[in-house]
Amino acid sequence: MLINKVYAAESQGLGLAEAAGLNGDSEAHYNFLQSFWDYFQADMISSIPITICSILVIAVLIERAFFYNRNSCDIAFLLNNLQAQLEKSDLDGARSIAAQSRSITGEVAEEGIRLLAVQKEDFSKAYDITVNIVTRKLQQYLPILGTIGAIAPFLGLFGTVSGVIKALWRMSLGGAGSSLELIGEISNALIATGYGLAIAIIAVVFNNIFNNIVKRYEDDFLLLKLLFMSFMEVNFFESGFGNAAASSQASSSAYDEDEMDEDDIDDSSYPDFLQ
Q1: Which of 94, 164, 208, 215 is most buried by a 10 A CB count?
Q2: Residue 82 burial (10 A CB sphere; 0-12, 13-18, 19+)
Q3: What's the rounded Cα separation, in Å, for the pair 260 and 275?
Q4: CA of 31: how far to CAs of 17, 148, 181, in Å?
């Protein structure tokens, strides 16, 4: 038995580490990369899926970082310029300013200006459809990060469990030095858990960062909507009061005040909440 050999060596003045065949030199020259490569080769059932997850995480990080950086926009500057043009009722100028921003926020602003000019009554619904389509583009590939962040630790744990099972099975076969081999195999098996946790942490952190970026884009789209609706409501009420005055004059010339009923009043020119 190994334990008897250790006791005998200790009685001869050797230390526990020396008796077990471990000394300071071997521990100082521990090679993590070699241990990682040994784990990768010994347990490909877990190492290959985790490696695929790591490649996907890196690809999504690079793609999304370039995408968000390319579509960055100074929303305060854009809103001020759009407001200045809309106050002058210059829709072409406002559309030109939105196009010059060369960002996804500018594209939404450009589409909002177009809707403001041609579809005032259903502007809010049409604008929300545009925002939802753009939001899907902003959230593209982010579910990959969320999924990997959830499953990578379990893949690593699966690798560790399978590695420990193999080590215990080999130890059950007996043989000299089996306990030392068990320690080494368990050490390599634990690399799987660390590997999975490292990938999961990176995926979760950047998934939260990118989701916060998407949330800021959604806030920018809401600010644009409020800006457009403020000018739409002004024009709407002005036209509504003009139509109401014309209809009241026509009704007064056709009917007498005493004969008018509430059902005879044309309130189609007023907003829904005033009808």
Answers
A1: 94
A2: buried
A3: 17
A4: 19, 28, 16
